[in-house]
Design a protein that fits this description.
There is one protein chain. The protein is about 75% helix and about 0% strand. The chain is mostly helical. It has one domain. Helix 1 packs antiparallel against helix 2. The longest helix has about 70 residues. The chain is rod-shaped, with a radius of gyration of 30 Å. The termini are far apart. Belongs to the LTO1 family.
Length: about 170
């Protein structure tokens, strides 16, 4: 073999090995950076999604609280069917698995809660929707005031409810 061709082969082999080592080093660096940024981004997305779910469940819990207050003031304000649906909604909200982040049924549970909430609203003939914004609270309060007057005649619930929304 010719010493010149041997030098050329060594040079080409070193170039290929250099490219492969650079590629491998870049891959390892990118992988490490990806793990770190992926965990950070995943945490941020998880916190945001968890906050949104908590806020929505809080909205439903607030409505349940108002409806239960109405029933305490006037036990005959709602039909037995409405009372039963409110109680079922409360059971669904109270049973939400806050401490089980890997529960695969979370979406199904949220959908059941939303459906039950819509059923209660339909039975009460009010239009309340959780839209994920604080600005909807005043609109929701206006809709709740459209309940038949016998639900509000005692004057104890609505002023307190509206005061809390405005402050």
């Amino acid at each position: 073999m010719d010493p010149k061709s041997n030098n050329v082969n060594d040079f080409l082999e070193e170039s290929v090995l250099l490219d492969e080592s650079q590629y491998q080093q870049g891959f390892e660096d990118g992988y490490k950076d990806g793990l770190v940024s992926g965990k950070e981004e995943g945490r941020e997305v998880g916190l945001s999604a968890g906050f949104q779910v908590g806020e929505e469940l809080g909205f439903y819990q607030g409505c349940i609280h108002v409806w239960n207050s109405v029933m305490q003031i006037d036990p005959g304000a709602f039909t037995s069917r409405v009372r039963k649906n409110i109680e079922q909604l409360k059971t669904l909200v109270d049973g939400f698995p806050f401490m089980e982040p890997e529960n695969e049924n979370v979406q199904e549970l949220m959908e059941n809660i939303r459906l039950k909430f819509r059923l209660v609203c339909a039975n009460l003939q009010v239009r309340l929707e959780y839209e994920g914004q604080f600005s909807t609270l005043s609109k929701d309060a206006e809709d709740m005031q459209k309940l038949p007057s016998e639900y509000c005649e005692h004057g104890r619930i609505w002023p307190h409810f509206l005061y809390r929304l405005e402050n």
